[in-house]
Design brief:
The protein contains 16 helices and no strands. It is mainly alpha-helical and about 325 residues long. The longest helix is centred in the N-terminal third of the chain and has 32 residues, at about 5-35.
Length: about 325
Amino acid sequence: MIQYNFQKVRRDIVTVSVGLFRIMIPTLIAVKIAQELGFDDVLVLLFEPLMSAMSLPASMAVILVTTLLTNPYAGIIVATTIPEIADLSVGQMSILGLFMLFTHGLPLEAMVSRRVGVQLWVVLLLRILTAFLSAICLAQLFALTGWYSAPASFDLLSIAALQTNDSLGAWLLSQIAAIAVIQFVIIVLVALLELLHLLDVERFMTWLLSPVLRMMGIGDRASTIAIVGVTLGLSFGSGLLMKDVGTGTIKKRDVFGVVCFVNLMHSVVEDTAVVMILGPSLFILLVVRLVISVIITMAIMALAAHVPDALWRRYLTNDNIPASAG
């Protein structure tokens, strides 16, 4: 009989909320100060060519940089302060959301990957290039086909509308309202994740992804860890990987492949659900992201198969992977 653990859910909600708001609130204050001082205008000017290539307004750079440095929650809150977001189509929101999923929390997650045994530059280049190239390709596709041209429905815009003037009080009111919505989202997500765990969704994900991981050339032992990362997040998957990597029982190529794949495709339930607040296409965020992640990882694994061991040690992996891992 399935028994739902309400006490654990309450503890997890508090833990997740405190952890996120410790990052989000200082970020919001920093963004507001930057806006008042005009620093965001400099950021917009610097990123304008890239934003244009992705068919996004230049002001979206503030959202992307915030998400890259922190997390999707902070990025979405910042989005409520940018008026141009109200004019985006479903396609543009999908591009924005996909970029956020590929690059969010990059400094922290790159360091986690480094602790597992993969060079820092590999993770940074992999995720940033994948995000930009995917966004540019989708922008071209949508422009040619007219797909997803309908206006997006961004639910938090109604909260942003509370900020009817430029006063500090109006800004504070809109941010409190937006944070309240994010708190509600956290409660729903934590409760849902516990339910999915009780329903043994991990087993279904194992059945679903195992053939894909084998196709990418990732061994069975590393595949289990990859599935944990895909469902629960990079930190969970990397934590398990670190335990096994130290024993030298997982080949360095498998470690490399898993880290690359999980960096591109992780925490699919929580992260996808959060970014869906923007009003993008779920198909783009879930299916297209998976296809891109698989293709990129397969290409990397194919190229890495021909790399001499000396180059592996010098450029791709580090000493956290024992020399005994062949």
